[in-house]
Amino acid sequence: MTAELVIETTGLRKEFRTRRGRRVAVESLDLAVPAGGVHGFLGPNGSGKTTTIRMLLGLARATRGSMRLFGTPVPHGLPAVIDRVGAVVEMPKFSPTFTGRQNLLLLARTRGITGDRIDAALDTVGLTGRDGDRYRAYSLGMKQRLAIAATLLKDPQLLILDEPTNGLDPAGIREIRDTIRSLGESGVTVLLSSHILAEVQQICTSVTIIGNGRMLASGKVDDLLGASSSYRVAVPDVRAAGSRLAALGFTVHPDGRTLRVDTDLPPSDITRALAEYGVWLEELTPLRPDLETVFLELTSADTLGHELREDR
Question: Which residue, 25, 193, 216, 244, could crosslink 51 as a Cys pair with Cβ 3.0–4.6 Å?
Fold first, then answer.
């Protein structure tokens, strides 16, 4: 395949029967995850992220549509590719009285995996030196990293993580973030389902945003955030700089000791305009919406549209 897609879904739909009738959890979802890097899978609670992941792993049956892992149709072809896939959908059942290493050794033996993979997995998740501690003494972040290490024993090419930072404190979140980033840089494709958008923006190369089971946006993070058309300008004389830029047709918004300048022109034009007026820049910073802003705009609009459709 050119531009190989590790995960691909087309027209994916999942319905559940409830006492109130049928509930659609996933609707016509087209998901495309390219090989390599970290792909964020974002959506509000109840948007269909976990349901999609469970369908990909053969844990839930799709109502309609098709799915492929490494180009192989699933769930029919899952046995052919499952050894290339690791997943943490819920916390594995580890023995609390065993050490981290003993827990991994037990898993490795049941799967016929050699012991050298244990050292590699522990090193990747940063638990080398703590592998001799009993599991019950681990922090929640360490337990989550051990869960990831367990999936790495078979050296997967695709790693699926469903909300891996849930319940973690800031230190634990940073540990998981660093682990995921290093995995993406090592060549493993990571599908990361998460709601902590600031973390996602730091480590993901591409994202898919869903709401009410439907795809709202997908692509590279930089493309979704868009090119900047606003700049923060800091100068010694804010009033003089603002008057000068406004006179030249720039849209200027005073913001305390700085200016926000809106323009489709390149930032060099701002620099030149002020320099010719004898005003020298202290700061010129492009302003772009962060991923959280884009996410909230998309999901809020989708929620409103969903409510309107429900009222028909």
Answer: 25
pLDDT digits (tens, 9 = 90+) for 253-299: 998 889 999 888 888 999 999 999 898 999 998 877 677 777 777 87
CA distance 218 to 40: 10
b or e along 274-307 (b: 16 or more beta carbons within 10 Å of the residue's beta carbon)? beebebeeeebeeeeeebeebbeebbeebeeeee
Which CA distances in Å does 190 have to 30, 66, 81, 161? 18, 21, 16, 7
Contact (Cβ atoms closer than 8 angstroms) between residue 93 and residue 128: no
Q: How far apart are CA 221 and CA 209, in angstroms?
A: 11
Q: What is the pTM of this model?
A: 0.77
Backbone angles phi, psi at 267, to 5 degrees: -60, -25
Q: Which tokens sit at 161?
A: 């993580």
Q: Are strands 85-88 and 158-162 parallel, antiparallel or unpaired?
A: parallel
The Cα–Cα gap between 103 and 163 comes to 22
Smallest CA-to-CA distance from 148 within 179, 119, 189, 117 is with: 179
Place of tokens 């200016």: 259
Which structure tokens are listed for 222?
């930089």
Across the chain, mean pLDDT equals 88
